[in-house]
Amino acid sequence: MFRRRVIELGPRRYDQTVKTVYGVATLDGNFNAAGHEWYWDVNASYGRNKAKQVMHGNINANNLRIALGDPADCALVEGCVPFNLFGGPGTITQDMLDFVSFVQRDSSEQKSLDFTANISGALFELPGGPLGVAAGLEYREQKGRFDPDPVVAAGFSSDIPAQPTKGKYNVKEAYAEINAPLLADRPGAELLELTGAVRYSDYSTSGSTTTFKAGANWKPIPDLRLRVNWAEGFRAPSIGELFGTFSRFDSAFDDPCSTNSALDRSVANGDLDVIANCTLQGGIGATTRPDDQLSVITGGNEDLKPETSKSWVIGGVYSPSYIPRLSLEVNWYNIKIQDAIQAFPAQLTVTNCVYNNDASACDRITRSGASGDITGIDSVLENLSGIETKGFDANLVYRTDETGFGRFGFTWNNTFLTNYDVIVPTADGDQVVSREGTEVGSPSQAFPKWKSIGVLDWDMKNFGASLTGRYIKSVRETNADNKIKSMFYTDLQLRWQSPDFADNFGFALGVNNLFDVKAPACFGCDVNGFDPTTYDVPGRYLYARATVKM
């Protein structure tokens, strides 16, 4: 294999022109009925977004093939100049570049139309207050298209290939909500109220459904509020998920059949079962490295079913009267999603195929008959069996009264992830993959068991400052023997509010990652060597912000 980066062509540059039109019209009013005030509104909105993108620095692979082939064939093509692939930097001439390069021109458009009508008011009095109700109707319409450059659509671009696509759907919805304050200002029931909601949805692409929601709030004493909520969810696939064009992206994953694999169970480590499976699957002889970028094909799927979910949230807020301005809040959640819309993870596809001879996984993989290397993985969107996650949030807020040195505040927000299971279908049934405490790698995503943000605030007259600490607990890579250490970032902000313009003008200076903490190494995280979705991009981030209110 011979590799040559065409640096003579210069860096890839993108120019994008976007034209957006958005309009909203609203009528509202109120009237009196059943001794209570009622409010109504009717709304309409229209939006259109048209974008044109131009990319410089791309190569036409078909023209490059001709220029690298027989010079006699090249001579028959207008503008063709034999391409010198073996010289050093600068040996590729402008005439060569003019023939093999092209300017990529893509375009896209999205349109939306939305009509809503709502009414809310109270029916009669309950011991705790008026019985509140709300209801409404909605009609939404979404359209979208994408037209790639013809060279890209033909598969000759050195960039990610894509095909033209378009699609549309509409949805009709109706909802009703109720708020019933059963008791108030009673011993053992400072407040006791029940809430409920129902929504009917009819999608042109996904059919119809009815979902419900119920909840309760209870204040046994003034300092304590307890609450519980149960809800059903329904999410129809979007235009992109349904009609998104097939496209390729380059992902880094570890092939156990490769002689350069870093996995414990691999040909490289002499695992006999893996050697037997790789022989059966045509993978013997593969030499790809764990950080090599390999092709993954993704895209929409018109056969997608809607996601459905059920969730519980139970929590409470304690605000002790003997410590004014202190608030403690804890919430526990349990969410189960069925038919979750996701792409089957590439690494899991490879390991399931090689380790388990799973036919459904092996069908997604294409290998070179000559080398045994993986040349592509089918990873279009599909309905996984589900996702189940549990955890709890714990938050503390305290603010002092005004002092001679200003006013101080402290906020501490914590998220604890106790369970995150992805349930994926295999030829032999469902497989449960536990993500909590792990880093997936490619595409990068971490699931730390604990994330925390603490903020110290100070305000005095027209000045203020904030010191923020961000903590991310350590995780372990799923496809590499590497523990990504815990991280702590520090941010600082200074503020000033104009005394002459009241609250109409303010200015702030800040820096994120004050102490320039380096992002932790991630061996399986694409090509950057770290996870930019979870950790800060290396370096300090400085900013200035001015706010003006008219």
Automatic annotation (TrEMBL):
Gene3D superfamilies xrefs: TonB-dependent receptor, beta-barrel domain (2.40.170.20)
Keywords: Cell outer membrane, Membrane, Receptor
Main location: membrane
Domain of life: Bacteria
Location of this chain's protein in the cell: Cell outer membrane
SUPFAM superfamilies, alphabetized: Porins (SSF56935)
Residue intervals of the TonB-dependent receptor-like beta-barrel domain: 22-514
Tagged with keyword Membrane: yes
UniProt-listed InterPro entries: Beta-barrel_TonB (IPR000531), Beta-barrel_TonB_sf (IPR036942)
PANTHER family: PTHR47234, TONB-DEPENDENT RECEPTOR
Protein name: TonB-dependent receptor
Organism: Sphingomonas brevis
Lineage, opening ranks: Bacteria, Pseudomonadati, Pseudomonadota, Alphaproteobacteria, Sphingomonadales
